[in-house]
Amino acid sequence: MSRVISTENAPAAIGPYVQAVDLGNMIITSGQIPVDPKTGEVPEDVTAQTRQSLANVKAIIEEAGLTVGDIVKTTVFVKDLNDFTTVNAAYEAFFTENQSGFPARSCVEVARLPKDVKIEIEAIAVRR
Question: What residue numbers bound the domain in which 87 lies?
């Protein structure tokens, strides 16, 4: 049985999906775009968008009772792979600031993302 994870500290689902599911030993998030859950605003630059997407992932993982250190896999979708170095720097800073190791990761360029954002990030975390 899975349990739905939902928090006001991340953007609400805007379609037929949930923020995350808790499978008991594993949390799987939906992709998080860089929408500030308090204001509904999207930052302009890709660095701020990366940080906001990761903050949204963190809020969901924490709602499930886990920490950033429990994230074992992320998938990063970017609109422009030319932003890879910039995204990578913000991503590295986030995991370093949260005092966790780096999870496995895939990063792919996509044609378009919801709300025409520059990045979307999903995660898998494991309850140890």
Answer: 3-126
